[in-house]
Amino acid sequence: MIREDKPTFDEREVENMPPVIEASNLTKRFGTLVAVDHVSFSVDEGEIFGFLGPNGAGKTTTINMLTTLMNPSEGSAKVGGFDVKKQDDKVREIVGLVPQDLTVDEDLTGIENMMLQAKLYHVPTKVAEERIGEVLSLVRLDDAAANRKVETYSGGMRKLLELAEGLIHYPKILFLDEPTLGLDVQTRVVIWDYIKKLRDERGITMFLTTHYMEEADILCDRIAIIDHGKIVALDTPQNLKDSLGGDIIELEFDRSPDDNTKALSSLSRVKDVKKIGDVYRVKVSKGEEALPEIMENVLKMNLRISKVSLVKPTLDQVYLEYTGRSLRETQGETAEIWRRKRTLRGMRA
Amino acid sequence: MIEETIALTKREVKKWIENPFLLFMMVIQPVIWLGLFGKALNLTGLISVPPDLLNQLPQQFRDQVPVLLNQMISETFGGTTDYFTYMAAGMLSVIVLFTAMFSGMSVVWDRRFGFLDKLLVAPIPRGSIVLAKVSSSVIRGMLQVLLIFGIAFAFGLQIGDAFGILDFLGMLAALFLLSLGLSSLFLAITMRIKSHETVIAVANLLNLPLMFASNALFPIKQMPEWLQTIAKFNPISYAADAVRAFILHSNAGFDAAKVALDFQFLIGFALIFSLAGILIARTGLRKG
């Protein structure tokens, strides 16, 4: 089933091909809440494109619009060259969706679920039987499990079955909504391998959403950071990290109620200072050399340093830079996020 | 369209046919209804003359009275003097209503669990999703019909002396049309409802009026005028009427013209609502 003739993503001349997904000013409103706010981007063929953002940022809503589950309130999108609003039937033929919720039918066995999916995508029974075996072995679900009812499956197994279902019709574009949400480390690695393999061997274009930094960093060719329905940054993981323009020195002071941002900015070698909570994030180049010098100068300012650390650029830092919050912080706002999510769900359903 | 509908119907049917508890309930429910309602409420038995009263009458009247009474009862109860038979025939239509009421329930569950999204993102006509739900409901309804007919027979259903296989098939056809129409109707009403509590509330609200404002359990003639008017638009009346005519088919006669009228109404009802259901599905199933 491996297409030998198909070049891998890196070898291909992406510039010459029209984008597979093209969104321009895509917007979705639920009453007064703007879930997705004039979002524009394009995804090339064979690319793994990631939407990174906290819960409730508008990731799932974007997927819903691109897979024709929802009509955009404003703007437009083309998937595989077809308009999601006017040619929704055509779009549905070429996309596969692995939704965030586990939607496999509990009352059916794994095989029965797969067979139903095959029927829905007009895969002939004979072909479907072959493919089911192939796809299930890809996600490492064995025969015994496949013949059991899904209600006996663990969360990880359900997700794997879900992934397998998304592939039964060999979609050109696969949408993965939080593919590893709530899974253990081993299953997560299996899924990552699998996603990469699909792209490398079959050239399937992938659009995935995640709120795991690591996942975005490992998997995606390009990442869009989305926050409050808007894209705040879009580039390759490496470029995003480089865009931070150097290393960050994080400083915390003892008993210093004043805002020291200005004082810190005036020091030599300092490019930029941001205060987030009690922490000052000082941007410098060549952090190892800059750190002693800055500490010396800070001590001269009669400030007592309580904590200091040198941070090399990671995607986490990028996220913090563009949204002003760390993902960990946003997870702290759980109550608010769930409230928002519930509102969305209520309106959506 | 057909292939997807069959695949989806299979899924729906599997959900209840492999559930022993549900199957058990499907058997018990009609037994309770037929046993309690049909046997305890012996309406035709109420209309009788006590023996000592009868004995006071002159001899020539004494023989006439029961004949006259039976004629009255038979007239009121559409050709039978046995209330159980009258009621059991109507019960067949009522059980179809009971099953059809919850045709929309699985849409609510599918929406909740996200399975509906999976169907909506698949390249299938949306109508096939609705058709599959309706088919499952109809299959279930018809199974219950066969079950009730068997149970009623065991309980002493008095079929007409000319009742044959054609009457049996005719009876099933009428109930099929009723089931198709009602299932589509309830599905259309509940298609955009998001909670199963609401579906139950809607079902309960419509259940009693539909059941009692019909000739399924009581003769229309005994009802006040306004209720009669409602009953005349109630598809259950037409199905019950046709079913009763088939069951009571006797050598004495069969009102073919009236049954033809019943079928006209039922065919129209089934056609309009099943098409409406498919049309509504295009927008109704979609998310916001």
What can you tell me about this protein's structure?
The complex is a heterodimer of chains A (349) and B (288). Chain A is α/β, with parallel strands linked by helices and 349 residues long. Chain A has two domains: 9-240, Rossmann fold, CATH 3.40.50.300; 245-312, Alpha-Beta Plaits (2-Layer Sandwich), CATH 3.30.70. Chain A has helices spanning 59-66, 88-94, 110-120, 125-138, 143-146, 155-165, 185-202, 213-219, 237-242, 261-265, 287-300, 315-323, 327-332, 334-348; strands at residues 21-30, 33-43, 48-52, 74-79, 82-83, 95-98, 173-177, 205-210, 222-227, 230-235, 247-254, 272-276, 279-284, 304-311. Chain A has a six-stranded mixed sheet with strand order 6-7-8-3-9-10, sandwiched between helices. Chain A is elongated. The two termini of chain A are 38 Å apart. Mean pLDDT of chain A is 82; it is low at 1-14. Chain B has 288 residues and is mostly helical. Chain B is 77% helix and 0% strand. The two termini of chain B are 25 Å apart. Classes of the chains: A alpha/beta (349), B mainly alpha (288). The A-B interface holds A 30, 64, 67-71, 89, 92-93, 95, 97, 99, 101-103, 105, 107-108, 112, 115-117, 119-122, 165, 346-349 and B 3-4, 7-8, 10-11, 14-15, 18, 111-115, 117-124, 194, 286-288.
